[in-house]
Amino acid sequence: AQSVAQPEDQVNVAEGNPLTVKCTYSVSGNPYLFWYVQYPNRGLQFLLKYITGDNLVKGSYGFEAEFNKSQTSFHLKKPSALVSDSALYFCAVRDTGNNRKLIWGLGTSLAVNP
Amino acid sequence: GAVVSQHPSRVICKSGTSVKIECRSLDFQATTMFWYRQFPKQSLMLMATSNEGSKATYEQGVEKDKFLINHASLTLSTLTVTSAHPEDSSFYICSAPLAKAYNEQFFGPGTRLTVL
Predict the structure, then answer these.
(1) Could you tell me which residues are beta bridge partners of residue B112?
(2) Which residues in chain A are contacts of B43 at CB distance < 8 A?
(3) Touching check for B34 and chain A: CB below 8 Å?
(4) Smallest Cα distance from A44 to chain B, Å
(5) Cβ contacts (< 8 Å) between A36 and chain B: which residues?
(6) Do A43 and B34 touch (CB under 8 A)?
(7) pLDDT classification of B7: cutoffs 50, 70, 90
(8) CB-based contacts of B88: which residues, under 8 Å, 6+ apart?
(9) In this predicted model, what pLDDT tens digit does every residue of B46-100 receive, in sequence order?
(10) What is the distance between the alpha carbons of residues A5 and A26, in angstroms, rounded to a whole number?
(11) Which chain B residues touch A41 with a CB distance below 8 Å?
(12) Nearest-CA neighbor of A100 among B68, B50, B37, B110?
């Protein structure tokens, strides 16, 4: 079955330190992977996606993610965290059925402490 | 990028009334839209897939007579919560995939529904 796992409910990091938000997936075939961010009481904003090509994908707000096929992971990273990065982060993979759906992880709450 | 709007952003209603939420794709056509529900600090729950010109496809456990979806045009989908009860209070979010962007989903800002 297709699935996405975000093993950490919450990640805490000090401002200026590097951050990593983990995501692993299970899907048949080649995955299309996405990261979205949600600020309080807001809709989701797209951060980045992996479709094909370079395993390191760069996205909005200085975020990047590394696609690792052997580990079936797509961890989100940022070299230096900002307090304003505090938000809820969702990883998703496109459903391989012909339905245009995304399969979502449960989300990781990132808290960046000043 | 593609823009999706939602209206209203916030609604408070009395128990037993119906509430309609609109989702519009502003600069692209969306034959498909998705409706999600999100509880506080929790993940997104896909409720249904809205299909232009045909019936919506509901996820397991979602009452189609409770949550009426209409997708009358290529830019508008509506979700009507009928006979709302306090347990229907939630954050409702719509999205539309863009085919030329590998079906990346573009999200509306969400609607906070509070049923008294």
Answers:
(1) B10, B91
(2) 90, 104-107
(3) yes
(4) 6
(5) 107
(6) no
(7) very high
(8) B66, B81, B113, B115
(9) 999 999 988 999 999 999 999 999 998 999 999 999 999 999 999 999 999 887 7
(10) 9
(11) 91, 110, 112
(12) B50
CA distances from B19 to A62, B51, B91, B99 (A): 39, 20, 13, 30
- Listed by number, the residues of chain B in 58-87 with a beta carbon closer than 8 Å to a beta carbon of chain A are none
How large is the C-alpha radius of gyration of chain A?
Answer: 14
Taking the C-alpha atoms of residue A15 and residue B15, their distance in angstroms, rounded to an integer, is 45
- Chain B residues in contact with A32 (beta carbon < 8 A): 102-103
Q: What Cα–Cα distance (Å) separates residue B80 from each residue in A27, A58, A89, B22?
A: 33, 39, 28, 9
pLDDT at A48 over 90: yes
- Measure in Å the smallest separation between the Cα of B108 and chain A Cα atoms: 6
Side chain identity, residue B34 = F
The string of pLDDT tens digits covering residues A5-36 is: 999 999 999 999 999 999 999 998 889 999 99
